[in-house]
Design goal:
OB fold (Dihydrolipoamide Acetyltransferase, E2P); BirA Bifunctional Protein, domain 2; nine-stranded mixed beta sheet; five-stranded mixed barrel; 14 helices; about 25% strand
C-alpha cells in the first residue's frame, strides 16, 4: 500500500480527469483579477458596507464547508482574503465546483465585498474559477514549515508556508532597489561586466573553472567585480558601480555561500575617507527607506546605523583585544610564534598578512557590535590599496563590521602601475613559491599604464546587509536558492 501522500496525489490525478470529463479546463490560459488582495481590503476600508464587485486570484490556503455555505482562504502575494460561497446564490451546478477544489489550488473569485459577524472582510462569490489544479498536497504540517532541508531545497514550499520567509525576500528586493536608488542619486552609473573571465582577479579566492569549447579555453567565474570597474575609471566613467553575483569555490557556512551578491562602486578623485562617508550614508539611507528608521534589532542587540560610525586603526584594535602588537613582529615566523603563545594555531606556513587576518577574526571581530570601521591595514594583507600617507608599512584600507560580521571593504585605490605590478608579483611569489611568476592580471596593469586618476573603491556584501536588516542569522535564509549538496550525495 502506498503512502498517504501517494494516495492523495492519485486522488488528485483522478479528480483532474473528472474535471476534464465535465468540460472544465483545470489549467486555463489566463485570468485577469481586477484587484490584489491588499487593494480589495483597502477598497473596503475606504467605502465600507457592501461595495462594488471585485475580482481576486490566488492560492487556496484553507477550505471550510458547512453544508450550503462554504469558505475559502485565498492568498496572493499581497496577503490573504476570505471568500464565501452560498449554494442558494450560486445554484447547485456552480456550487458543485467546490468538490474539485483542494488546498493548494489556484482560483479566481468574483463578488461583492462585505464583512462577516466576526469582522472578517469577505468576498461573497458570484463566480468561482479554477485556475490551476494542485496535483501534490502541501506537506504535513505545512503551515509554518520548519524542516530546514525542505525549506532550502524546495523554497517554493517555504514561501507558501512561512510568512517570515515571504517578508524576508520582499525586503531583500526593497533593499537592493534602495541601494541602487542611493547610488544613482549620488551620480554613479550602473554597469554590467563579464562573469566569465580569462583569469579571476581582484581578490584572493579560489575560482570556479569551466571550459569554453568554442574558444578551446578554460574560463573562470569572477570572484570580484573590481578590475573591470577600475578599467572603466581609466576609461573616464568617474562614478561607476555594479551589483551582481560573484563566485568563490570555497567553504559554506551561515555567513558564506559559493555564489553571493556583491556591490562594488568606484569614485574618481576620492579616497578611503570618502568611501567611509559613503558607506555610513548608504547603510543608514537604505535602512531608513526599507524599515523607516536607522536603528535595527539584530541578534538581541539594538544597532544604530546613522553616522558617525566608530573608526579604529586595525593595529590598535588587535593590540587591545589580543595583547599582541603585530608591528613588534616584522616577520611571519616571529608573529606566528607569538600567536602560538596565545593559543592561536594555523595550519601550514601562513604569511604575515594571513596571520594578522587570523588575529582580527579571532580577537577583534566578535566584539564589534555597533558599526565600526577598522582602518589602515598592513601592506601584506592587501595588494590593491595605496600605501598610507606617512607610513609605507600600511595601506589605506578599511573594513566595516557590525554585530561581529564584515559588511564592507574599501581602499584608496592604488593607481601606480609600477607599484601595482610589483605587489601582485610579490603576492603571487608568496602563494606559489615560484620566483619566475607570470602575472595573471597583466591586462589590468596595462590599462593602468594609460593613466588612472586617484580613486576610492568600496565593496559591500548585499546578502549580509539583507541578513542585518531582516534579522536573519544564516545567509541561506536570505538567498532564495542557496547552494546545497546534491540529493544523491546528501
Amino acid at each position: 500500500m502506498g503512502s498517504r501522500l501517494d494516495r492523495v496525489t492519485e486522488e488528485r490525478f483522478r479528480d483532474l480527469e473528472d474535471l476534464r470529463k465535465e468540460g472544465i479546463d483545470p489549467f486555463p490560459h489566463v485570468y485577469h483579477p481586477a484587484f490584489s488582495v491588499r487593494d480589495a481590503r483597502l477598497l473596503w476600508e475606504r467605502e465600507g458596507e457592501r461595495t462594488r464587485t471585485v475580482s481576486i486570484a490566488g492560492r487556496v490556503m484553507a477550505k471550510r464547508r458547512m453544508g450550503k455555505l462554504s469558505f475559502l482562504d485565498v492568498r496572493d502575494y499581497t496577503g490573504k482574503l476570505q471568500v464565501s460561497l452560498r449554494k442558494d446564490l450560486l445554484g447547485d451546478e456552480r456550487y458543485a465546483i467546490l468538490n474539485h477544489i483542494d488546498i493548494g489550488d489556484f482560483v479566481g473569485a468574483e463578488g461583492e465585498l462585505f464583512v462577516t459577524r466576526a469582522g472578517e472582510v469577505t468576498v461573497e462569490v458570484c463566480s468561482l474559477s479554477l485556475l490551476a489544479k494542485s496535483l501534490r498536497p502541501l506537506p504535513e504540517k505545512w503551515h509554518g514549515l520548519v524542516d530546514v532541508e525542505t525549506r532550502y531545497r524546495q523554497r517554493y514550499l517555504d514561501l507558501i508556508s512561512n510568512e517570515e520567509s515571504r517578508r524576508t525576500f520582499v525586503l531583500r528586493s526593497r533593499i537592493v532597489s534602495a541601494t541602487r536608488r542611493f547610488l544613482d542619486d549620488e551620480g554613479y552609473i550602473e554597469v554590467e561586466t563579464p562573469i566569465l573571465q580569462a583569469t579571476a582577479g581582484g581578490a584572493l579566492a579560489r575560482p570556479f573553472v569551466t571550459r569554453h569549447h568554442a574558444l578551446d579555453e578554460d574560463l573562470s567565474l569572477r570572484i570580484a567585480l573590481e578590475l573591470s570597474l577600475k578599467k572603466l575609471i581609466v576609461g573616464g566613467i568617474d562614478r561607476v558601480y555594479e551589483l551582481g553575483r560573484v563566485f568563490r569555490n570555497e567553504g559554506i557556512s551561515t555567513r558564506h555561500n559559493p555564489e553571493f551578491t556583491l556591490m562594488e562602486c568606484y569614485c574618481a578623485y576620492a579616497d578611503y575617507e570618502d568611501m567611509m562617508d559613503l558607506t555610513e550614508r548608504l547603510f543608514s539611507s537604505v535602512c531608513q527607506q526599507v524599515l523607516g528608521s536607522t536603528r535595527v534589532e539584530y541578534g538581541g542587540c539594538s544597532v544604530e546605523l546613522a553616522p558617525p560610525w566608530r573608526r579604529i586603526p586595525l593595529r590598535d584594535a588587535v593590540r587591545e583585544a589580543s595583547g599582541i602588537d603585530f608591528e613588534d613582529y616584522r616577520s611571519a615566523e616571529s608573529l606566528h610564534e607569538r600567536m602560538l603563545q596565545e593559543g592561536v594555531r594555523i595550519e601550514g606556513y601562513p604569511g604575515r598578512g594571513r596571520l594578522i587576518d587570523e588575529l582580527l577574526s579571532t580577537f577583534v571581530e566578535p566584539a564589534l557590535v555597533q558599526p565600526t570601521f577598522l582602518l589602515d591595514y598592513p601592506v601584506e594583507t592587501s595588494p590593491f590599496p595605496k600605501k598610507k600617507r606617512g607610513n609605507e608599512r600600511l595601506v589605506e584600507r578599511f573594513e566595516a563590521f557590525i554585530c561581529g560580521m564584515e559588511f564592507a571593504n574599501a581602499f584608496t585605490e592604488l593607481n601606480d602601475p609600477v607599484d601595482q605590478r610589483e605587489r601582485l608579483e610579490q603576492q603571487l611569489r608568496e602563494r606559489t613559491g615560484d620566483e619566475d611568476v607570470q602575472l595573471a592580471d597583466e591586462d589590468f596593469v596595462e590599462a593602468m599604464e594609460y593613466g588612472m586618476p586617484p580613486t576610492g573603491g568600496l565593496g559591500i556584501g548585499i546578502d549580509r546587509l539583507v541578513m542585518l536588516l531582516t534579522g536573519q542569522d544564516s545567509i541561506r535564509d536570505v538567498i532564495l536558492f542557496p547552494q546545497l549538496k546534491g540529493k544523491r550525495n546528501a
